[in-house]
Design brief:
3-stranded antiparallel β-sheet; 405 residues; disordered C terminus; 5-stranded mixed β-sheet; 3 domains; Double Stranded RNA Binding Domain; hpI Integrase, Chain A; alpha+beta; 18 helices; elongated
């Protein structure tokens, strides 16, 4: 049991000595603080003589790097103070772990940092529906991997694999948060593999499908608002939630621009979408229909939601006359078709507002401040003209250019 002056660098690289399965490294600064290193894990504990029975005892403090060296030393000093006062520090440390999973989830969802999550409603729905109904009464001190498997396995059997994967990710996030907030000393799910890999959809609508979809909208979707949202998704290539939540304040018809604030965008980065004549025509119709409403697609006291549009599409079923599709398929179709028209990838990245493309690497992230506004407008106008020809039944076939042999 070597004694060393522990540092974060040492903790990050600590391995068992002499081929042993594990080695305990005791801190030379704080008496009793121990870093236990195994082949694939480092964990903190505080070793002390129990005041009640005088036996050598270990109190688990958490894992590294979830618990930093500074935090572990603080926990160890607090525990040492309790021992000096004749108390068993394990008694107080178990108080938080006596809470149930349901109580932990309530605390997690009530965290002010979580209130700002755009996906909070979906996370709360999944946790309440899939998790709390099964293991809500389980105490944190008794939570094991098998409990989580009892949640996920039935979902996999029902073949809702995407929902199962998202639910597992939500559970894991809650448990990691519990460790950070010291509700748990360690993560009981550490090393547990996700239940399924969520594959990326690759549905892209053909010209014929776009023609059929566009012209079937009045029959398939009773709501004129949903019809317009679908059309604008196919014209602009933007996300359905961004389109359905469009407001008057975001639209500048004189500049022919749609200016999305960071608070309304998935990655938090403000985004300007040049508007083609086709897009302006639809937006102008919507503005005329709903008077002075701030929302361009009002629904009650707010805006039409992406969920409402998605449900309307599902309810319409085969009335569109094409195989099953989703609103996000429209975005993928637009980007794919503009690429086929020869639009450069960097311009596509700016149109889609994908930071992984527009800010990839040091050069683009730090030095390249050009926003490609002119190129974005040219690309979206080009696509709008192409789309108008497609839905009007006058589109020519695009033949990719081949290099010389």
């Amino acid at each position: 049991m070597p004694k060393v002056m522990l540092t974060d660098r040492f903790a990050a690289g600590a391995k068992p000595l002499n081929g042993d399965e594990r080695t305990d490294f005791f801190d030379a600064l704080v008496t009793g603080l121990c870093l236990r290193a195994t082949k694939d894990r480092r964990s903190w504990s505080f070793c002390f003589t129990n005041p009640s029975d005088k036996k050598w005892t270990r109190l688990t403090l958490g894992t590294y790097p979830a618990i930093s060296l500074a935090a572990a030393r603080g926990k160890a000093l607090e525990a040492k103070s309790q021992v000096d006062q004749g108390q068993d520090p394990r008694a107080s440390s178990s108080a938080a772990a006596s809470m149930t999973v349901a109580e932990l989830v309530a605390s997690y969802l009530g965290d002010p940092e979580k209130q700002a999550l755009r996906s909070k409603a979906s996370i709360e729905r999944r946790l309440r529906k899939n998790v709390l109904a099964v293991i809500g009464e389980v105490k944190l001190s008794e939570l094991r991997r098998r409990d989580v498997r009892n949640v996920i396995a039935p979902m996999m059997q029902r073949n809702v694999k995407v929902e199962a994967a998202l639910t597992f990710a939500n559970i894991r996030a809650v448990i990691r948060w519990a460790v950070q907030r010291e509700y748990l000393e360690h993560n009981p799910l550490e090393g547990m593999e996700k239940p399924a890999v969520v594959s990326v959809r690759d549905r892209v609508l053909s010209d014929d499908e776009m023609f059929t979809l566009w012209n079937s909208l009045p029959v398939a979707l009773p709501s004129i608002q949903c019809q317009r949202v679908v059309k604008l998704c196919l014209i602009t290539g933007q996300r359905v939630g961004e389109v359905s939540g469009m407001t008057r304040g975001e639209i500048d018809l004189s500049a022919r621009e749609w200016r999305l604030p960071g608070s309304r965008v998935k990655n938090g980065c403000a985004h300007v979408v040049p508007l083609s004549d086709l897009a302006i025509g639809i937006i102008t119709e919507a503005l005329a229909d709903f008077g002075n409403a701030e929302s361009i697609f009002p629904n009650g006291h707010g805006s039409l939601s992406a969920v409402a549009v998605g449900k309307a599409i599902i309810r319409a079923g085969n009335r569109f006359g094409i195989p099953r599709w989703s609103a996000h398929d429209l975005r993928r179709t637009v980007i794919t078709e503009m690429a086929r028209l020869g639009v450069a990838p960097i311009v596509l990245g700016h149109i889609a507002n994908h930071r992984t493309t527009t800010r990839a690497g040091v050069t683009l992230a730090v030095y390249a401040k050009y926003t490609y506004d002119k190129e974005k407008r040219a690309a979206l106008d080009l696509w709008a003209d192409r789309l108008a020809a497609i839905v009007g039944g006058n589109a020519a076939t695009i033949t990719p250019m081949r290099g010389r042999k």
